[in-house]
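Appendix B. One record, verbatim.
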Amino acid sequence: RFVTTFHGTYNLGPFAIKRAYNAVMTRGERVIAISGFIAEHMQAIYGVDPTRIRVIPRGIDIDRFDPATVNPRRMIALAQEWRLDDGVPVLMLPGRLTRWKGHAVLIEALARLSRRDVRCLLVGDDQGRVRYRRHIEALVKRHGLGGMVHIVDHCNDMGAAYMLTDVVVSASTDPEAFGRVSVEAQAMGRPVIATRHGGSQETVQDGTTGWLVPPRDPEALGEAITRVLALTPEERLQLAVRQRAHVCANFTKRTMCERTLGVYQELLYETQKTEVFAE
């Protein structure tokens, strides 16, 4: 029996051979899509029969991403490494340094803020994209945001990183197939702002567990940041409770594994049923 998982939209490129290569992942007897967005993409681009598709969202480790499990010493160590000042609001955009993650959109949004008492951390490795890194650094300098925006490269303790953060941003200009950062942030009870397309529309409940803004819209992103920074401690606490419940109900690793095993059991049952009929 043949089961495949379709993880992303994948770049088709200018050649038909790329499309044929990607299409291998659509040929399973059951094709697992990691979001409803990906399921629709498979049907629209590859004509996959919807009866073969099973939508199983990605899951995260809710024990690892749990505020209660983050020792304050970890937060202190990371704050010292990143030279974060006490009492200064922290924004974070986690994700490798690549153009479609929307770093430039966030920088443009920060330039529109009426305040400068904010630190913005771009957490992620450039993976050899030196020219893009220089482009981002030049954009920061051009807007006079050198004291606000910092590229801190890879982080080995994202649990502590989330706990140090007041606003988590996912500013992707292209649709996220799922959007793990938004889910991790919600599990940690951190306010999250994501772009309104792709998987983010399924993982973030706009106005309830986070905020969605149009892609490539610095003004809307800036307004959302201002709104989130103005939340009272009580509002942030209520938000965190809703976020944690949302993730635990829909996006745990346990649920993902159980539903994936269910797909295999579905096919095995069909095999057994066929063998019985054959006898």
